[in-house]
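Researcher: Next sequence.
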Amino acid sequence: MHLKGDLVDVQNSLLGIADHSVQALTSARIATIPADAIVALIAAEPGVSLSLWLDTLIEASISREWLLSTGQRSARQRIAHFFCELAFREEDVQPPGGNRYALPLRQEEIGDATGITAVHANRVIQGLRKDGIVEINGRVLIVIDWDALEVAGDFNSLYLHRNREQRMYRRRMAN
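Model: Next structure:
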């Protein structure tokens, strides 16, 4: 799942061919960078090369976490984990909005992303609402109880390679 500001598939500038497709679920502004320009930039600017490498490593870390989710977590854990990840990653590109995060997905898409049916996704989300953990208002995820959401999702943000303490401070200041 890519968010606003993410570089999408930079590895294909070196691989030469994409083995997958990308679909926008919301309106998007897209800029393309020719592969030869990326390769030239990497050769000329070691700092850019390091940044792209780190971005690719983090993307691989996220992929490993998604594999773990699909193979080992319950539907409730998957959705709670997904909500935590989206919120943490959104905080990188948006000013902190307290406990409110963009959720540009319908339940069918949440189900697809987490490997469950739309009906099951609906039941899980209703359970998280009933437990007072989250609320969804239109396309906004409202996290009522962060600690409970992290427990429900078996969520540990280390795989995102962000500074959790700084995030928690910003979240508290925005409330």
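Model: The chain has eight helices and three strands. The chain has a mean pLDDT of 84.
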